[in-house]
Amino acid sequence: MNHDDSVSVAELLDERRHLLEVTYWMLGNSREAESVVGEAYRRWYGLSEVERGEISTPRYWLAKTAGGICLGLLAHPRRDATGQRGQREEHHTTTGGAEEVQASLAKEVSRVLLNALDSLSPAERAAFVLNDVFGMASGTVADIVGRPESECVGLADRARRSLRMQRSRSTPPDEHDLLARTVREACVNEDAELLESLLCPDATAFFDGGGKVRALSRPVHGSRRVAHSLLVLLARHPRTTLTTHSVNGRTGLIVRYDHQVAAVISLDIAEHHVAQVWVVLNPDKLRSWNQPPT
User: According to the UniProt record, where is the region Disordered (predicted)?
Assistant: First the structure.
């Protein structure tokens, strides 16, 4: 089967945009992202028609191939996607649609966050980006990274802890508690102005749905957008409650729906404002919160 004849132009362009997004987040460099996507497609067309016909989901095959190339680049950053030596420097392409995609990505992905991602190991960065940024299921992440599923879960957890340590300053517990309670008050009262004022201008919110719920598939960046996304998620409902509770040793927020924990929110604080918001919506990760007390 020739897959190229069986899909629409819109689907083909959406597939390419998705690959550019994944590779840009993994590498933080638009020139390298473009090169990796080009190499992934080159390998696709290097297959025979029979081999391509046996691939049921070309988009997944391309994402897996691009992810593998990215891992190789992260491990050997002085080589480009084809294995040639090169320099990792930001470069602007002049290829029309791709340029627009990369420009929008560069605006969406904060330089602060990309610099923080650079400190992670290749496997940690890949696991974090694929799981937290694109909401891929842990089995899919394991397939792309080439590690056991349980190991990929651990890699993503280590990446989150590392990012939190880099961004957060040593905040006294009472200050953290007060800020968390004020965030709750702003959310309960749907006070967008107050909530935005509590966030760093370059705050980032991560939504971990684990592919099990329709959570936002990518991080939200910027105080206004983060505030909006939280208020939409926590919109008033007679069966929904929002309370403060200890989360990872610091005051966080617990969202309950009909007394069932539906989300756990951790807050990382820097310079008296919330720098990062981590929203866990994955039912698998919430099981311990919903177990009856022993």
Answer: 80-100
